[in-house]
Amino acid sequence: MDLVRTTQVTSSYSNSRRGYHYDVFLSFRGEDTRKTFTDHLYTALKSAGYRTFRDDDELETGEGIKSGLKQAIQMSRTSVIVFSKDYASSRWCLNELVEIVDHKRTSSDHVVIPVFYDVDPSHVRKQTGSFAEAFARHRKTEPPDMMERWRKALEEVADLAGKVLQNQAYG
Questions:
Q1: Where is the TIR domain (predicted)?
Q2: pTM (2 decimals)?
Q3: Helix (H) or strand (E) holding 25
């Protein structure tokens, strides 16, 4: 799997000496990809020997990012973000993304790899298509400063080199 080989570059022999508990932190919208692509990616990473964090807990609507999740992001060498059609409809995913981007900004060696799973990278970058629809819904309930943080995080990560996977049946 190409993404696993890409991640190998980021896995460091000195992870434990630098305080990393995980090689990879997976960020994804569970309803979209948990039982397909993300499950396959997680299995491939684990099989290749990467310590990989994947949050499997059911998340409560409206809940802020859990401190344990924030710590897992900070204790990871790499974050792989799987952008899917409904990624931006989840406040949780967007808050997690902001946390990842904040960590990338404060940790010079944190690597972020975006995966665009059946979504065009320009839709993520410019918040068009399903991302525009999700932001229109969020606008009704979310403060403008949070919306701006989400927008900037999406733009920043969409500008990174990543993997575009279009029309991938069953992961």
A1: 20-171
A2: 0.81
A3: strand 22-28
